[in-house]
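Title: Prediction job returns without error message
Component: structure pipeline
Severity: low
Priority: P3
Assignee: unassigned

Description:
Job completed but the reporter wants confirmation the result is attached to the right record. Sequence as submitted:
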Amino acid sequence: MKGQLIVRIDADLKKRFQALSRREGKSMSEKVIGLIGEFVSSNDFSARVDRVWGKIGGELREKGLGPGEVYKAVAETRKPGGRPAKK
């Protein structure tokens, strides 16, 4: 279900925003939706964590490492006197 968001802004700011949105080939609504989406994703902690884990997972896959190797490395590091994590 889509909802509405009503915002009161200065008339000059609205006019300038409309012109800039049109320059990008977008409606003001499309632009506002995009800006809100960017704001939420960059400030949503769970989305940040997902991006970090996604990046880490991609780097591990590039090195040919899978879940088994990660589990072993974590277990080894947690042992008393375990080896420090590689940088």
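Comment from assignee: result matches the submitted record. The helical segments are 11-23, 28-43, 45-62, 67-78.
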